[in-house]
């Protein structure tokens, strides 16, 4: 299980749109308010992280791998 940040926004509504987009792609996520930004982070459960990162990058531009969690 990985936590991947797909965006950071100064406007909460933009973060909500990004979260809905991620959910439409099959990911569960949340919005974290940190450093005066709304950060959209999704949970990625995969055996092929590169494939999922590539998929997320194609939809969101850049992504940041936040951490790996033990299942």
What does this entry look like structurally?
By secondary structure, this protein is an alpha+beta fold. The protein is 35% helix and 39% strand. A hairpin with a 2-residue loop joins strand 2 and strand 3 (37-44).
Keywords:
about 35% helix; about 70 residues; about 40% strand; 2 helices; four-stranded antiparallel beta sheet; 4 strands; single chain; alpha+beta
Blueprint of the fold:
Blueprint lengths: L1 E8 L2 H13 L3 E7 L2 E8 L4 H12 L3 E5 L3
Mean pLDDT: 95
| Run of helices and strands | EHEEHE
The major β-sheet equals: 4 strands, antiparallel
Uncertain residue ranges: none
Could you tell me the number of beta strands?
4
Q: Strand order within the widest sheet?
A: 2-3-1-4
| Shape, per Cα inertia axes | globular
- Spatial extent as radius of gyration: 11 Å
Enumerate how many helices there are, as a single number. 2
Structural class: alpha+beta
Helix content class: 25-40%
Distance between the termini: 6 Å
Percent strand equals: 35-45%
The gist of it:
The protein has 71 residues and is an alpha+beta fold. The protein is 35% helix and 39% strand.
